[in-house]
Amino acid sequence: MTEMLLKYFREQQKQVETERIYNTQCPYCSMQCKMQLVEQTHVKRKTYKTIGRDNPTSQGRLCIKGMNAHQHPLHKDRIQYPLLKVNGEFVKISWREALDYIKEHVTEIQEKNGADALGVYGSASITNEEAYLLGKFARVALKTKYIDYNGRLCMSAAASAASKTFGMDRGFTNSLQEIPFTECIMLAGTNIAECQPTIMPYFEKAKENGAFIIAIDPRETGTTKIADLHLKLKPGSDAALANGILKVIIEENYLDERFLQERVNGFEEVMQYVVSLEFSVIEEITGVPLEKMYQAARMFGQRETGMIFTARGVEQQTDGSAAVQNFLNILLSVGKIGKPRCGYGAITGQGNGQGAREHGQKADQLPGYRSIENHEHRMYIADVWNIEEKDLPRKGVSAYEMIEKIHDGEIKGLFLVCSNPTVSNPNANFVKKAFEKLEFLVVADMFESETAKLANLILPASSYLEDEGTMTNVEGRVTLREASFPRRGEIKHDWEILCEIAKVLGKEEYFSFSSAEEIFNELRIASKGGIADYSGITYERLRAEKGILWPCRSLTDKGTERLFETHFAHSDGKAMMVPVSNQAIVPKAKITKKYPLYLTTGRVVSHYLTGVQTRKSASLSARNFESFMEIHPSTAKKYEISNQELVQIESSYGKIVVRSKFSEGIRPDTVFVPFHWADSQNVNNLVSEKLDPACKMPGFKVSAVNISPSVKRSSY
Ligand code: SF4
């Protein structure tokens, strides 16, 4: 730095009149890094910067997103007042008018069409308190069975697989602190270097300590670079690859027979099925050479300790749930779970991907990971909510299926909280048409997202800087996000908005909360005795103990660092293995003459989800201001595409145009496009509506496409 610049900064520092520090937590990924916003008042202006704060998970680290996270809540485009659409334009109205508008339309729609004509669409970025309250709001205030959330598109496959295999779903079976000391790590379909950057040092430390790292991904990424072995599989062949690895484990007998006998059901069936498979067929399906499968199986089987991590690469497929189950089959077959430095982790994408799936905003679920179809569970929650069990609606349908019901006219009105479904869902052109059919769309958000633009009414919602509450991070650690930054205009917290709507609907007695902590205290009771038991957790403890890993069943319970040490959560205490087919029941896109390339999708480090927040950050959007298509140069040559050229990508569902980006690290039969952009750059316009029958996860990770230069060149 030049002397002149240093002088400038010293002068600036001298001019600081006051400094305020706001403790908070990053709003983006599941690491939920603790941080501080530093506000300095100078003579004529205010400046802001975000710095990391020590905590057990991210240990003070922040990535580029966290460092710039203050830019979106401070942005001039924040919605600060209720906005009603009048003649196609949004006009500012009062809260009183907004609430009267909601009351009138809810009453009219439900009187004419029944309670289920209204739906609720939630989010995995909101706090546990708000996720809990949204589930209660749908079932008690609106009395509708139709509620689901955007975590369905993110975590449902891993959640379903862990529930089936272990009997419960907490993303990580161990705390992060064990990773540096494990001897073999399998990273299946996860690009943590870009998606959860502050987790990387745990894996780098493991490598320094001698761990062998296996990465499974169709592309080379920042994450595969730390791997000792990269299995560059064809998109969508994860379940088959796991079968290949299992077959070697069985053939070379790395099995932990005692563990299998004492703690696992179903191994014999898995063995019979896997032994019957041909290696040559698995090689053909996966594109992974047999010797690499042997190497992976030998390293994972022979080392004393090992861990497997999965993420969206494995999970966002029409057999995502089964594919994860097959990786868990590997883990169980070698007995690497329930003991130190051995275990599983589903690396959550969204900030509250874990907590938001535990407390009732899923279509089939009640708080504490209870089932809405289980009589005892219904009785318990009805009692906590002080309603009759018979008045509690039954299960609804998944997020995308709700959109189909909107399209069919069965759902006529929707409450949407902190989500942008017209961009994030598959078959996005259809989704937009469905939303345009709604008679009544109320959106609570910070910005006019692509979906909010379609609303009749937008309600101004608070940001992470302003909204206190608990979040449950990637480990299953419940943390308290402090938030004291002043709100502008007439912004309200999501939980306040829900309470006020409930009040005008005549349900005040069930929603008379005056703080997030009061809601949390009801959530604690509602979760008591459930799988995700938070009853021993209090705000006071969270402040003192810097987070607690659930289950935490009493005020003296320290929480649970490592799961399944003595028994799994199924009623007989055993884990369950099931054979997993190489082929999905719901077929995935196949490449053909017309659509000869695989398309897979994912994230870049500077953006989050559909980019509604990160595209408002100048520093972040400057790093990636537009989408792109990663392509192998040899493939590009075949299609006469140059580097950095606009390219049209077409599937049987739609077309988009993005810029090409050459990479030697991607499979020549595959292109990659990130999913953070809307409209003509929205890769979800190309993705099929087919869902995994086990968990209703869409198959985002495999489409078949054709590509061509966007501007046709004249031929001389
Ligand atoms: Fe931490 Fe994730 Fe935020 Fe980055 S995006 S600072 S890793 S929480």
Briefly say what this structure is.
With 716 residues, the chain is α/β, with parallel strands linked by helices.
Question: Roughly what fraction of the amino acids lie in strands?
Answer: 15-25%
How many helix segments? Answer: 23
Mean of pLDDT: 96
Number of strands: 28
Largest sheet geometry: 7 strands, mixed
In the predicted model, the low-confidence regions spanning at least 5 consecutive residues are none
Distance between the termini: 53 Å
General form: globular
Give the fraction of residues assigned to helices: 25-40%
* Ligands, ions, cofactors: iron/sulfur cluster
SSE-based structural type: alpha/beta
Radius of gyration: 25 Å
Question: Could you explain how this protein is built, in words?
Answer:
With 716 residues, the chain is of the alpha/beta class. Helices cover 31% and strands 18% of the residues. The chain contains 23 helices and 28 strands. The strands form seven sheets. The protein has a seven-stranded mixed beta sheet with strand order 5-4-18-17-16-6-7, with helices on both faces. A six-stranded mixed beta sheet has the order 24-26-25-28-23-27. It has a five-stranded parallel beta sheet with strand order 10-9-8-12-13, sandwiched between helices. Helix 8 runs antiparallel to helix 11. It starts with a helix and ends in a 7-residue tail after the last strand. The model has no long low-confidence stretch (mean pLDDT 96). Bound molecules: iron/sulfur cluster. Iron/sulfur cluster binds at residues 26, 28-29, 31-33, 58, 62-63, 65-66, 196-198.
